[in-house]
Amino acid sequence: MALRRPWVGVMLWTWLSIMNPHRYSWGFAYSAPLAAVAAGVALLGLAFTKERQSPFQGAPVAWFALLTIWITLSWLFGYDPAGDYVQWSKVMKIYFMTFVALMLLSNKYHLMAFAWVTVGSLALLGAKGGFFTVLHGGNYRVWGPPGSFIADNNHFALALIMTVPLLHFLQLQLQKPWQRHLMTVTMLSCVASALGSHSRGALLAISAMGAVLWWRSNRKGLMSFGVLVVLLLLLPMMPEEWWARMGTIQTYEEDASAMGRINGWLVAIEVAKHYLFGGGMSYQHEFFFSMWGVYNTNVIAAHSIYFQILGNHGFIGLALYLGLWASTLWQAGWLRRHARSIPEAKWTVDLGSMVQVSLIGFAVGGAFLSMPYFDLPYNLMVLVVLARRWVETRGWERDPAIPFMEYAGLRVGKRERADVSSARPRRTGY
Prior knowledge:
Largest sheet: none
Strand content: under 5%
Number of strands: 0
Structural class: mainly alpha
Radius of gyration: 23 Å
Order of helices and strands: HHHHHHHHHHHHHHHHHH
Distance between the termini: 44 Å
């Protein structure tokens, strides 16, 4: 399918890259290069298709391209280019496929499919984790797919929190009541799963996103009641260990883990001061921590998207990174402001609004987690950039006029069935 329709290859890559379903298998399938196969097929289809466009469709893509170049320079001039090659290669694969998605996705079918695959890949894991949390009363932590960007419980929790507003966007596009109710259950399951991860960063992200959603809601009273009901359902079941861990947010000075993170942030600042390109793909080197560690000399992960980018790629790298997400937030706001009066583009208003909420959750929760290269935020950038392009070029006037299943090649159209029927030889009687 991807050879004939390269955009299908983008969906396949997205599913494998975000959900990592092969990590729940065993034997050769666990480590098989499935994502590489998906990328290869998508690129082969890209080489032959005429339905491709320039990836530079908006300001966020320009920021993204500059960031990609700077990260490569940072790796080449970093402290340990040879040791950092594996990480650089991993990040560049994600970035490269992001450019491929920008080249191949153009109509509403493409964007909605991309949203469903991106969000659904995490929502399925969140629903499973939420059921597990409720079943065991939150006594066990929820973890992400092994060997993935979100394997850690904290990273997995933030990914699920970012997924919740995107699920609401998809819910707004559904027509049948049972579908909307099922989506509500899925969102609650993702919240339960995030709480079940015992992540303090996730709790802060939930609080920030909840505040934004409440502020934007036209029915603040009803929403406040809904939030209260959710809190009364989920929080009382959480064990004493969970409450003790969340309580350390207010007493971080007494938490060795929190002080270790602050020490890592101070080291990142010093690395950026002394090295224009930063430390490379990782500033976690004993040399840096022994020279600039304040509280101790223990090498520790940055535990922050901001300080990790700062330590890895310097002040210029951090400026490019912040510029990318500020520009993406602005693009999402453009959809909210300019597409309201267009009936055909109402879905882009919902998209822009919920992407903003999701990115705010990423900005808050990511301040305490090392996941600046995770796929999901970059996929959101792709969605808002291409949605704006779709609105500006009146995409509804050139979108396919056939059902999605037929467009995707999953069902034969009436015309094709008629052609096949007329091509069959007719039987003659004797």
